[in-house]
Amino acid sequence: MPRENLMQRIALSIGLTLACAAHPVAAEEPPFPHKGNIELTVLFPAGSSADVTARLLAEGMAKRLGTNVLVIDRPGAGGAIGYKYVAAQKPDGYSLVWNSNSISTTYHAGQLSFDYRAFDPVARALIESPILVVRADAKWKTLEMLIADAKSRPGAISVGNSGFGSHTHIVSVALFNATGTRVIDVPYGASQVVPSLIGGHVDAVVQLPGALAGQLRNGSLRAIAAMTREREPVLPDVPTAREQGIDVSLDAWRGVAAPHGTPKEAVEVLENAIRQTVESTEFRIAAEHLSVRPAFMPAEQFGALIASEDKELAALMKVIGLNKQ
């Protein structure tokens, strides 16, 4: 072989080697999750229905994902503090929010500068039905009795809820507005609502069953109306407001969402872990004990539900004077 050709081939070989060294082939990243713990932000304090149910879900997800799912409570401003925190995190699947109807109510109440589109839906996990509750020794045995008394004494009856602009606040306002009744709305932090009723600081509360399960079972509280289209399976003896002549039904749902832009692959892995957890026997039994209803919904359908309901809640909040957008 001529010396010139040999030298050219050697030079070409060296050039290719240097080029490969300068641009190494990227190693394939392990499948999600591989970076360690996943954080699930809860919008309400420890002991609240949101906190208790989030821990139930997180435990099941951790088993199926093979990594810890840490529940971190970031309460305040009707959920706005937690939503702001998660929305600002890296969209990689490791920062999630235990979201609810509050993504719409908090935004339309003027407490958030962004709406539900700041998050990618992962899956709905359960449904909770807002219920109107009084103490067991209260004189009101039915919703009709409470409404009649409230109408005879405008502004004399106080009704607690989980905070200004919260889902329970909106349900309470919608319920009493529908009857032309004036009561005093008392927005508490979620963990304070039930103790305030038991302590006699308010006459009634609109709250979610998960926060009331123990008191309803031991008989210290009495539920007189559920704001659902049909009777809640976990509270079959509680008549709906519609059954009692008041057409108000606003179920509360809870699910998981991630910052917008989270990789589809990560969303699919998380969605599957939630599905397996929610459809498991252990989750169903625990949910029944907490008076909540398992209701898995995949990401695409969940997103459509949030978008549709956002419009409904915006309209309702405008009617009752809570829409600040």
Task: Specify the overall morphology.
Answer: globular
Give the DSSP E fraction (strand runs of 2 or more residues): 15-25%
Number of domains: 2
Instruction: Pick out the low-confidence regions.
Output: none
Helical fraction = 40-55%
Order of strands in the sheet with most strands = 2-1-3-10-4-11
Architecture blueprint of SSEs:
Blueprint: H1 3-22, E1 38-42, H2 49-65, E2 69-73, H3 80-87, E3 95-100, H4 102-108, E4 119-128, E5 131-135, H5 143-152, E6 158-161, H6 167-178, E7 184-187, H7 193-198, E8 204-207, H8 213-218, E9 221-226, E10 252-259, H9 264-278, H10 281-289, E11 293-298, H11 299-319
Question: What do you see in this structure?
Answer:
The chain is an alpha/beta fold. It folds into 2 domains: 38-127 and 252-319, D-Maltodextrin-Binding Protein, domain 2, CATH 3.40.190.150; 131-226, D-Maltodextrin-Binding Protein, domain 2. Helices cover 40% and strands 19% of the residues. Helix 2 (49-65) links the parallel strand 1 (38-42) and strand 2 (69-73). Helix 2 crosses helix 9 (264-278) and helix 4 (102-108) runs parallel beside helix 11. It starts with a helix and ends in a 6-residue tail after the last helix. The model has no long low-confidence stretch (mean pLDDT 89).
Summarize the structure.
This protein has 11 helices and 11 strands.
Brief descriptors of the model:
2 domains, D-Maltodextrin-Binding Protein, domain 2, single chain, five-stranded mixed sheet, 325 residues, 40% helix, 11 strands, alpha/beta
